[in-house]
Write a structure and sequence with these properties.
single chain; 430 residues; alpha/beta; 4 domains; four-stranded mixed beta sheet; elongated; binds zinc ion
């Protein structure tokens, strides 16, 4: 038997008659590997009185143990195509090891019969009662968002889907997609995904497509329902992504820019080319520097104004103070400076804009959902909805599309700040 302890048999080699037999020394040649099934030959050889003796013996190592079939799970039903669900079957053999891949099964007369044979031909068979049926419908999984928002006339790109059936496997190719989408008209549409498995079980799911009007801003026109999206502290690494989103909906915004990072000079140019307003925030954004004296502030302001002009050709006189005109931080550096600066800017023909809606992205939250909520809850009719945001924050960029959806579906116009825009001012605290 395989794996048994075979010891080469001792033999008595004699010379002479039965009674006068004398043991002779002999040599054994050949080895029996009891770990390996097969036929082995062992020879016994001896020399005695000038004669040569040789005896050959055949040793067979055999495997007579049947493999084990292990069933995991309970049988309820099997698919009409023979697929077995929810049950795992493994086979192991004392000699061959794991022979799960050798398992065969067949289904007949509401029975499933498993059979597995090892390499020595030892076979194990197990039989179970089953019900052959398939009444489970396939599952359809949609990639991408649901609903999807589209700006009017924006092409719909299907983000894809997968259909899986318990019996048939992946049947994505069988999915029939129909839709009543008309991108030329605002409204709510549906894309229907329908799939039927080979037993006739059908599933349908829908994706909602909301076509919203593009922003329709005209310069010089005033709006009762208006939103000014303002982005401070950029341009930065997320600004281009933001510009692309704004562009899709033709939304115009205002960027209150800084000037110390030359890596984004091209983005600054792009902001202007896309029709957004470039406002002056600060070249250095260094509170200790700009709020230590009126001269320092003005030098810094002229520096950012120059930079904007150099990259866009636009001479901006639209300002936002770092921290807003109501900041108290500046008290630390120069008491009374905010009163002086606001008067000074006024004299110089500049306009400064604070905000009346906080998105919360300046430290309160990093969650785009909270930003969306903060902004959409605060937007009101007959108000200069001036939203403070920062394009250097990735979560703000992630929130922006939903804010745009809210505004456009509720009849608001997104406008950039111009010199005609009514100033939104905080009260001065220093
Ligand atoms: Zn700032």
């Amino acid at each position: 038997m395989v794996n048994s302890n075979y010891v080469n048999e001792r033999i008595n080699l004699c010379y002479g008659t039965k009674h006068t037999c004398k043991n002779i020394n002999y040599k054994i040649k050949g080895k029996v590997d009891t770990k390996k099934v097969g036929t082995y030959f062992v020879t016994y050889e001896a020399n005695y009185k000038g004669k040569h003796f040789k005896i050959e013996k055949e040793v067979k190592v055999v495997d007579k143990k049947s493999p084990k079939l292990v069933i995991e799970g309970a049988f309820t039903n099997v698919c009409p195509n023979g697929k077995v669900k929810d049950v795992k079957v493994r086979a192991s053999d004392n000699y061959d090891g794991d022979i799960t891949d050798k398992i065969e099964y067949k289904i007949s007369d509401n029975k499933i019969i498993y059979k597995v044979s090892d390499s020595s031909g030892n076979t194990t068979r197990k039989e179970f009662d089953v019900i052959i049926m398939d009444n489970e419908k396939p599952t359809i999984i949609l990639n991408g968002d649901n609903p999807i928002y589209l700006a009017k006339n924006e092409k719909y790109k299907e983000p894809g889907y997968v259909a899986i059936d318990d019996c048939d496997g992946n049947i994505t190719e069988e999915v029939i997609v129909t839709s009543n989408l008309d991108i030329k008209k605002e409204g709510t549409y549906y894309i229907n995904y329908e799939v039927t498995d080979s037993s006739g079980n059908k599933n349908t799911i829908k994706r909602e497509i909301i076509v919203i009007p593009k922003n329709n801003y005209e310069e010089g026109k005033t709006y009762d329902k208006v939103i000014y999206l303002t982005f401070d502290d950029g341009p930065g690494p997320y600004t281009e992504k933001l510009l692309d989103i704004l562009d899709r909906y033709n939304v115009k915004a205002t960027f209150f820019v800084t000037g110390y990072d030359d890596r984004y000079n091209d983005v600054l140019k792009k902001e202007y080319e896309k029709g957004h307003t470039i406002g002056l925030h600060s070249f250095s954004h260094n509170y200790g520097l700009i709020y230590s004296s009126v001269d320092n502030y003005l030098n810094d302001l002229l520096k950012i104004q120059d930079k904007v002009k150099r990259y866009t050709g636009f001479e901006s006189k639209i300002v936002r103070f770092p921290g807003g005109s109501s900041n108290t931080v500046s008290k630390k550096y120069a008491p009374g400076i905010m009163s002086e600066l606001t008067n000074k800017l006024n004299e110089m023909g500049y306009k400064y804009y604070d905000w009346n809606i906080l998105s919360g992205d300046a430290g309160e939250t990093t969650d785009p959902n909270v930003i969306v909520k903060n902004v959409t809850n605060a937007i009101k009719e007959n108000k200069e909805n001036m939203v403070l945001m920062h394009d250097i924050k990735p979560y703000t960029v992630d929130a922006i599309e939903r804010i745009i959806h809210y505004g456009l579906t509720n009849g608001y116009t997104f406008a950039p700040i111009t010199m005609d825009t009514k100033e939104v001012h905080h009260s001065i605290n220093n």
